[in-house]
Write a structure and sequence with these properties.
311 residues, 6-stranded mixed sheet, Ferric Hydroxamate Uptake Protein, Chain A, domain 1, 2 domains, globular, alpha+beta, single chain
Length: 311
């Protein structure tokens, strides 16, 4: 009798056994949905409509993007070169590239190497990085990272009230509504600093803001002392708007590889209270940072660009 079909039968049985054992062949188990946002110019302009995708154990950030967007890659397929024909490079005269955030934290690995666990908010943005090659954390994926953590782990959320008065209670309330349970401190916690800038500037992570976007990734300045004011910067890092008394700022940064630090601040308590009221999706979504002028003005996207910077 010919032995011809036996190897094929044996292979089929082996593959079936491996699949039952969950050895990574095929897509794997469904993990739930992720949200995907694709924008350009610091979130100012959508490139694709926001969407949700169901992911499995085998999915990565790159695979999810590739489902609904026309993309090209580089460096062996690990990094994105273009999305919908918008390509990284000099455009025009300044360096532009695609960057991505998962739950509001900039990735330190390529999209092809970033696994997903379900529930993440993925944000791709095409931006000028001449003034800030690295923007380590952003506020525009609210309620992330508070609801789901980052790097695949839930994290404690510590609210540090440093002279913020009633604004501290408002911040805790907004975080609870977002799905977090704020604590006073915790190892590896995502910290939320609430208070006038003169107090927050004592913190090493927050103090990076005073050194400009190249150090902190935040396109704003606050300087303690007499005459303190919130200044909004444009994409090149220049001062484009000055906000007077009562102005506030919500921004996020990160020092080295420590957990992200959010800043809810202003020059005075009125500014801190105005900033605390911005903690919702309507005011933060798809924004790197947000300033609010004193006197109840509309929130301002940071960095400022185009007509915003000119106004």
């Amino acid at each position: 009798m010919s032995p011809g079909p036996r190897p094929a039968i044996a292979t089929a049985l082996l593959l079936a056994a491996l699949a039952v054992a969950g050895c990574g062949l095929g897509p794997g188990e469904d993990l739930g949905e992720v949200g995907v946002t694709v924008t350009r110019d610091y979130g100012a302009e959508p490139v694709l409509e926001p969407r949700s995708d169901t992911v499995t154990e085998s999915d990565t950030v790159m695979r999810v993007l590739d489902r609904d967007a026309e993309i090209s890659t580089r460096y062996g397929g690990g990094f994105v070169q273009s999305i919908e024909g918008i390509e990284g490079g000099e455009s025009p005269g300044s360096p532009h590239d695609w960057f991505f955030y998962v739950n509001g934290v900039e990735s330190t690995v390529g999209a092809a190497d970033y696994p997903l666990r379900g529930g993440e908010a993925i944000w791709w943005d095409y931006r000028d990085w001449g003034a800030a090659m690295r923007v380590p954390a952003v506020v525009g994926s609210w309620p992330q990272p508070f609801a789901g953590g980052y790097d695949g782990r839930r994290r404690p959320v510590a609210v540090e009230c440093r002279g913020g008065g009633a604004a501290c209670g408002l911040v805790r309330d907004r975080l609870r509504r977002a799905g977090a349970e704020p604590v006073a401190s915790g190892e590896g916690a995502i910290r939320v600093l609430v208070g006038p800038w003169g107090r927050l500037a004592e913190d090493p992570a927050a103090a990076q803001i005073e050194r400009g976007p190249e150090a902190s990734g935040v396109f704003a300045t606050l300087r303690p002392g007499p005459g303190c004011r919130v200044e909004g910067l444009d994409e090149s890092g220049r001062v484009a708007a000055r906000f007077g008394a009562g102005a506030g700022l919500v921004a996020a940064t990160r020092r080295y590889e420590a957990a992200p630090v959010w800043v809810v601040s202003g020059c005075d308590r009125a500014g801190v209270a105005a900033a605390a009221r911005l903690l919702d999706a309507a005011d933060l979504r798809d924004r790197y940072a947000v300033a609010v002028p004193g006197g109840g003005g509309a929130p301002v996207r940071l960095p400022l660009a185009g007509e915003e910077a000119a106004s």
